[in-house]
Amino acid sequence: MHFDSSFGLRKVQAIAAAPHVVAQHVFYPSISYTVESETVRVDAHNKLATKVKERPVAYASHLDARIYSYYAQQLQQQYKAVFTVAKFG
């Protein structure tokens, strides 16, 4: 879910693939909130114990999400290359 207009793939690729453009890009602050969920388990005395677990949820703008995705993919390729050399070197 995003809170801005979508961009075409070519425009996103042109922006994300240009580090000097990304360096000058003003990222929107993420809209975020916390979701609370309750977990139940059996404690040491065979009694049910509940615990509230908080999970942060955040939404980025379309362009910001695409830039993050682009660089995540770039990093993943680098990590795979390093891991493959280290493991099978």
Describe this structure in words.
With 89 residues, the chain is α+β, with helices and mostly antiparallel strands. The chain has one domain (9-88). The protein has 3 helices and 2 strands, in the order ααββα. A hairpin with a 5-residue loop joins β1 (31-42) and β2 (48-59).
Throw out a few tags for this protein.
89 residues; alpha+beta; flat
Short description:
This protein is α+β, with helices and mostly antiparallel strands and 89 residues long. It contains 3 helices and 2 strands.
Count of discrete structural domains: 1
Average of the residue pLDDT scores:
87
Class computed from helices, strands and strand pairing: alpha+beta
**Total beta strands:** 2
Radius of gyration: 20 Å
Roughly what percent helix?
40-55%
Residue share in β-strands: 25-35%
Give a short account of the largest sheet.
2 strands, antiparallel
Unreliable runs: none
Q: What is the strand arrangement across the widest sheet?
A: 1-2
Order of helices and strands: HHEEH
Distance between the termini: 42 Å
What is the overall number of helices? 3
What does the overall shape look like? Answer: flat
